[in-house]
Each structure stands twice: as structure tokens, then as C-alpha cells.
């Protein structure tokens, strides 16, 4: 087992007890970036010195899932070690990613999801909701944990949120993290191509059908506009806040400047980032998918429509 903790003191590793297997601690950094080389060296050492059935890697809570998975799917040359680092071991064909597992604290999820501040120590300046969305949308297995402490309504909303934003994920439920090993090991769920398409749920919702999730309580609404947004009107509209019924939205918008702008909203945070230029600026448009409970589609259309140029 490999345990990664962001701080200098690895508390998680000290909690792994009563095992004859080797636990490797990687501290004071994250295996998705600063400690990626250390992770590969550790796995290489395990493969050379141990007879293993599986390697379980527990990342720090702020780790990005995609770079961790890429560590085992790319050549050392593609991974490009940092200057001064020894050559990275080639693990292709020696290990494979079986599944990416996200364990959700069901009792605290929506409290964190709705926080407006940034994650302390996060180099990318992400908010808590953005991080939670990334980790849920990338996972092959989502474990809804602490069911004994979470309100029933929150658990149901979590089920629905995962069903919409990551329909390919297998969802398990647990109390105190207790699951059978066979439920999370040797499940063969990882698919690099599918996992790389974190925004695939947006394209799926664009299809002309009623999402299954609407049966369970959460609904979706897609806003489309051919006219560009007026930047000042859009800023004023966003400053007033989106309806509280909206818990997630994602898409792209046209600000009339020839640049496609990514719209990424989770909880109480919304980020607009330039994603590249339109191939045909005259055909630019806006399209945003909203997810929430009891969404008022016409009201959302009027709200956004009032910000158009």
C-alpha cells in the first residue's frame, strides 16, 4: 500500500495497522505533481522486491486523479522527469490501472461543495466544489461513505449527482469505509479514453432524451444562445448569483471576442476560463448545462437572456 499525504507528517500512514504488508509513505507533496517520480520509483521497487497481487495507492485529498492515472499509462519520455531527477522507471506492461476510486464523506459533502473559499495550499487556486466535482467525475468507483452520519436527503442527492455527472461510475455505499475487497479490487473498470473525457456528461445531456435522473429528483436544463453575451451585463448577472436550486453547471459561452470561454460552476463558485478560439467565429454560440433540484428552466433562460448583447 502506498499512502500520500500533502503535509510533512503523514497521519494517514500511521493509521494503517495490523498488516504484514508493506506501507510506503510519500509525504510533503502530491503524487499527481511534485512526488510523481517518487511514486514511480516506489512502485518499481515493489515490483522488483515483492510478490504482489495488487498495489493500493491512497492519494492526498487534493490530488488530481488524471495525472496519477497517466503515471502508469505513459512512457518515461512522455512523463518528462524534472531536471536533476534520475531516469524514471518504465512501468508500461508491468502494472495496469484497475480502477480509480473516490471515497465521499457523505456527511460533509454539501457543506464543502457550497464553500466559497479556495483550498489552502492548492497551487491551482481551486475551490472545494471544483475539486469534489473533478474527483467524482473521474472515478470508476464512487464510495458513498459515512451513511450513518449523513442526512438521508443528502445521500439521495449524492446518488443523483453521481448518476448525472458520471453515469459510467459504479456506486457503492459504506459505513466506516467497510467494503468487501472484491468490490474494489480486480474490478477492471478503468478506461483511460473514457476517463480523460471528464466533461462527457455535458455531451450526453445534449442528446434529445429525458435524463434518468429526473425520475429521482435532480433535473437538468440546457441553455443555448446564438447571440453573444455582453461582458458587463454577464458580470452584473453573475454578481447577483445563480438560483440556489442550481448545484452544478458547465459548458461554454460566447463573449463576442472570438474566444470560446469555458463556464465551470460548482456549489457557490463559478469560473470562466478561455478555452481557445472558435474555428468559425461567425458560428460561435453559448451552451450551458445546469443541474439542480426543482430547476425553473424558463427563469434560467430569462436570467441569462438578460445578459446577452
From TrEMBL:
Q: Which reaction does it catalyse?
A: GTP + H2O = GDP + phosphate + H(+)
- CobW C-terminal domain residues are 218-308
State the UniProt keywords alphabetically. Answer: Chaperone, Hydrolase, Nucleotide-binding
Q: Where is the signal peptide?
A: none
By its UniProt entry, which CDD domains does this protein fall under? CobW-like (cd03112)
Residues in a coiled coil are none
The organism sits in which domain of life?
Bacteria
Q: Which InterPro entries match?
A: CobW-likC_sf, CobW-like_C, CobW/HypB/UreG_nucleotide-bd, P-loop_NTPase, Zn_Chap_cDPG_Synth
Q: Return the similarity comment.
A: Belongs to the SIMIBI class G3E GTPase family. ZNG1 subfamily.
What is the official name of this protein in its record? CobW family GTP-binding protein
Amino acid at each position: 500500500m502506498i499512502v500520500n499525504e500533502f503535509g510533512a507528517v503523514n497521519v494517514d500512514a500511521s493509521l494503517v495497522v495490523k498488516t504484514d504488508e508493506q506501507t510506503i509513505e510519500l509525504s510533503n507533496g502530491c503524487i499527481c505533481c511534485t512526488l510523481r517520480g517518487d511514486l514511480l520509483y516506489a512502485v518499481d521497487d515493489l515490483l522488483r522486491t515483492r510478490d504482489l497481487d495488487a498495489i493500493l495507492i491512497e492519494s492526498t485529498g487534493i490530488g488530481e486523479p488524471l495525472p496519477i492515472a497517466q503515471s502508469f499509462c505513459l512512457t518515461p519520455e512522455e512523463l518528462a522527469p524534472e531536471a536533476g531527477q534520475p531516469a524514471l522507471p518504465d512501468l508500461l506492461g508491468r502494472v495496469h490501472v484497475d480502477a480509480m476510486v473516490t471515497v465521499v464523506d457523505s456527511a460533509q459533502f454539501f457543506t464543502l461543495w457550497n464553500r466559497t473559499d479556495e483550498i489552502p495550499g492548492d497551487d491551482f487556486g481551486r475551490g472545494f466544489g471544483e475539486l469534489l466535482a473533478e474527483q467524482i467525475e473521474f472515478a470508476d468507483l464512487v464510495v458513498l461513505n459515512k451513511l450513518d452520519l449523513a442526512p438521508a436527503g443528502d445521500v439521495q442527492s449524492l446518488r443523483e449527482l453521481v448518476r448525472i455527472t458520471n453515469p459510467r461510475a459504479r456506486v457503492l455505499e459504506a459505513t466506516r469505509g467497510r467494503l468487501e475487497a472484491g468490490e474494489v479490487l480486480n474490478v477492471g473498470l478503468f478506461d483511460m479514453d473514457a476517463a480523460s473525457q471528464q466533461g462527457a456528461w455535458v455531451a450526453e445531456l445534449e442528446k434529445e432524451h429525458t435524463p434518468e435522473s429526473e425520475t429521482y429528483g435532480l433535473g437538468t436544463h440546457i441553455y443555448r444562445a446564438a447571440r453573444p453575451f455582453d461582458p458587463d451585463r454577464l458580470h452584473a448577472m453573475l454578481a447577483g448569483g445563480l438560483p440556489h436550486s442550481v448545484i452544478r453547471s458547465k459548458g461554454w459561452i460566447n463573449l463576442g471576442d472570438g474566444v470560446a470561454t469555458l463556464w465551470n460552476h460548482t456549489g457557490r463558485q463559478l469560473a470562466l476560463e478561455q478555452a481557445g478560439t472558435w474555428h468559425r467565429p461567425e458560428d460561435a454560440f453559448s451552451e450551458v448545462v445546469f443541474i439542480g433540484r426543482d430547476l425553473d428552466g424558463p427563469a434560467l433562460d430569462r436570467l441569462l437572456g438578460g445578459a446577452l448583447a
